[in-house]
Amino acid sequence: MKINKVLIVGAGTMGQQISFQCAMHGFETVVYNHRAPSLEVCRQAHQSFATHFQQTRGVPAKDTDAALTRLSYSTDLPSACEDADLVNESILEDLAIKQPFYEQLCQYLPQSSIITTNTSTFLPSQLTGCITRPERFMALHFVVGIWDAPIAELMGHPGTSADTVATTTDFARAIGLVPISINKEQPGYVINSLLIPWALAAQSLVTNAVTSVEDVDRTWMISTGMAMGPFGLMDMIGLGTVHAVLSNLADASGDAQQRKDADYVQAHFIDQGKLGLKSGSGYYDYPDPAFSRPGFLG
Length: 298
Prior knowledge:
By secondary structure, this protein is of the alpha/beta class. It is 47% helix and 13% strand. InterPro entries: 3-OHacyl-CoA_DH, 3-OHacyl-CoA_DH_NAD-bd, 3HC_DH_C, 6-PGluconate_DH-like_C_sf, 6PGD_dom2, NAD(P)-bd_dom_sf.
């Protein structure tokens, strides 16, 4: 099967980046969101990405201009689904939202479409009950900052067909990413299996008032030479997603510290509309976060 048209569901941080990556690599790409203002934010982000690629990565304007012409935006799901060969979903990490959406999505897609999810929290098998062709469904998971962390994690469920895996793997390569094959369902894939314990440790230090956000990040950045610490990364991922992961982990494990961490993020950030980079405020304020300023490391 040849992939020509891609449908990206969700216009948040990940949807913005995934759709631009697809368009930059020659794919006709539609971004769907039920809210027009979210699509306008996405459109503006794409313009910003194009400028960034020209000014800091040396990409010719003709190439970014061509990518922008391949991008379209829709609040109408039936028309967005028309002729879509591959779908990638990046909506809120909540089964009560994802499951009915997939039921609706499957009503409009061509029979041949491959459906993929970028979920950071759930296993593909938790969603197959609302997919009409589960053999054509799997996870295709990206990392925030997609052009700086160019991997795509591929994880099927027991009923995913070999053809679906092969086609999706080829697609990942076609958009300039290194495919990481995950042979059986694993919560957190590879990247989050490594990152989540690290982020949990950082959050617990702050939740329990052991130290400050800045000193956690400062310690990590000085010790490893990395450009940001766990809280800077959580802001990039989005604190809505961070809270969903913490809450789902707490529900699954019954761990009191994880519940305390989830409640901390809810009270200090979500309830105040502070969602990280995309809202302009989270653990840090943007566009000039403290961790990027001279002198932060002392």
